[in-house]
Amino acid sequence: MDPMKPECRSVISRVLGREFGEEESKRWLADMRREFRYVAGTKEAQAAGWTRDQIAQKAAERLAQNYLHKAAKRRIRAQQQIVAQAALENNREKYVRNGEKAFKSVGRVLEDVNRYVIGLEEQYQGQMVKAISSIQSKWLGLMEDRDTALAFVKECFGEDTGNKAAKDAARVWREVSNEWRQRFNNAGGDVGDLGDDWHMPQSHDSYKVLKAQKLVEKNEKYRDKYKGDDQTVWVDFLFDRIDKSRYVDDEGIPLNDAEIKDVLGSMYKNITGGKTATGASRVAGSRSGCFADKHAKHRAIFFKDAESFFQYHEIFARNPSIVGTMLGHARSMASDTALLEQMGPSPNTAFNTLYKEAAEEAAEFKRATKSTKGHKDMYGPGFVSVKDMWSNLNGETSTIIPNHEGIAEVSQTLRNMQVWGKLGQAFITSLTDIPSYFHATGYTKLPWGTAFRNILTTWGKSDREFATRAGIIGDTLANSLCRWTSESVGYRWSGKLANATMYMSLLTQWTNGIRRAYAMNMMGAIGKITRNKDWENLDAWDRFILEKYDVTEKDYKLFQLAKTDNYRGCEMLTRGAIEEISDADLAKIGATRNDAYIAAGKLMSVLTNEAQIASLQPDLATRTASNRGHKRGDPTGEVIKSFMMFKSFPLGMVSAHIDRLRDKGRFIREQGGTKRQVMAAQSQYLATLIIGTTLMGYCVNQIKALIAGKDLEDPAAIDTWISAFTVGGGAGIIGDLLVNATDDSKYGHSAYINFMGPVIGTILSASETWDATKIGGDGGAKAWRLAKSNLPFINIWYVKAVLDHTVLNQLSEFLSPGYRKRMEKNTRKRTGQGFWRNERGIRRAPRVAKHPDPWPHPFGLFK
Q1: How does DSSP assign 306-372, residue by residue?
Q2: Which pTM value belongs to this model?
Q3: 488 phi and psi, to 5 degrees?
Q4: In Å, what is the CA distance from 595 to each residue of 516, 556, 578?
């Protein structure tokens, strides 16, 4: 880059009243040239035919405004960081006073922030329901209707399709996405308004870009047009779809074709190297230095029309679904905004400060006591590091290590295979949500009658529609987070099959229904108390629950200003009602529109997080236990994920209810209660939870036995109740070992294989099956069982019940004659259960089994 002339620097130095050095001048020239290129490429400049001097003048004005803006932004960010840090310190101190020392208090603070993130994600998804309602799907969501999706994208690009639904959806999308941008900026971000240049978020899957030649060749329309290596094919494909007038040099002169392709070639290297010009990549290394500047990068790819964008998006986007891309953008903006609002413009600095204070506290404790008891960097039943919790919260663990995309893809596919092969009966197991639902109702002191009514009516169309209007939509839009695996199952073919399996098994509908019912309980309760009580008159427990989600007196006043919706005789407080409070009403209490949006997000945080206790969703500590802070594509991390698969539910159960016990103890102590009162309340909480879930776990196991054609389990046997306790969620991570050790036939392999997790277990089971084949045992039947346990759909509980007794058992018998009788004999020997139905049909009525050894020696569990 040519340096600025000395005489020019001298003039600027006199104007500034200080030395304007050579390095500073180089930075200024780089900024000026960037603004010059931007202005020269605008439609306004090209339509008016601006001269070089006019472009330079406009660019200089923009640069001056940008410098002033950045200076003001730095001052505001410094103030916001101080306020946020003080709030975090106060929150941590609250937990320290409750006896949660050092790193445990930091972990609790991170869990609080995570709850806020979840609430904001739900708020943003609720705001965009109208925007995605025009885009239809088919085949259980496996496919997105191309025509309706393209109509929506065209309307976003300003192309009139004559489709009123698409036009309205595009208008809503522009409005809400602009509101998200403004809220992000209010929290310390700095995203400019791209106006007509912004239509849809762009994303580039580096794994797909690296395979451009193969992907384009698959499409008959493009097969003969684009030839060469991956970079050449990608560049040529994109070159035909961009607005070439937007690419100019430092003098404002349009680039020629070769020069544009050189620019696109540089973009290819950025994307495949882990960085993108749009900042949309989820590959590690794409983040900017300052978190608050995360979305501030200039767009470098300008598509000439909607069809061009759509064609590129179908092949090279991370998620080819338009709805999926919009949801991804909403979640990304919500997560980032939540972190800024809770931890300031520099969340990493905020966390490092908290961590440093905790480390100093732990070091002081060690010097004084020569012990680290209670002061190690471990949190929750999974014994995770709070540093790893932070890596999960800030999104670092969801990024892919550059050049490890293949490892991440294969590993995710293997885990998705276990979801579709092993979770076909998870709906039956999820019936244990019923006692959890009522237990959560008692904890928050919600009306029992309303709770009972809502769990009956939640499955109806009326409740579903009201909940959607109120913003309680969550997994209804895109149920891609599996509660049993604590990670996203993804958007590729394997993820779609996993989602479809959960949907067809009724697990998705059940989970949504339970959470919807509980959220409506909370909406009604909050609506009622805000109509009848001011903040200072609130019941202490009600205020404690609200304050847990950072609801302040100001937020509560906004709740009171909002108009409630009367539904089934209840006054429901909804997100939309808070967001729609008039400016005049806001002015009465000195609140702004942004304050109303924040209050609405806190309401969603209360509703969503409490509902995710009623029907459990893994918390931050549980998600961290499943990856230990490793990024996607890290071989060690992928093995850990495979080992932890299906262990997230019991681990999450323990983690969630430990937090509840701590909160209950803290509340009693704050109210002046004694240690005995704390222990009594916590014991009652645990007793009701364990008894309720264990009894339902017993019922679930009996239902499973009947579906499988077995007799009912012996209620007098200890094995029966250990299994019921585990199924109910109470046994924690050792549940796999306790139950599987007494049931070698689960999935057809040994206990130690089951304990290793389904992915590793499948690999070990394949080896075990091969050994059985070589010695002439039940190799054929075991091979079939292994294949069957990894096929989609056929293991869904109602499909399995039919196929097992009509086709599949006969096939096992054909492959290994006598196998069925040996399995039945083994079952009777272990549990005393006979079979009331087999492949020939119903043999007799089911009866209660008599266990051959109902009260074995404790160590007999591990025989």
Answers
A1: HHHHHHHHHHHSSS--HHHHHHHHHHHHHHHHHHHHHH-S-HHHHHHHHHHHHHHHHHHHHHHHS--
A2: 0.86
A3: -70, 135
A4: 26, 11, 10
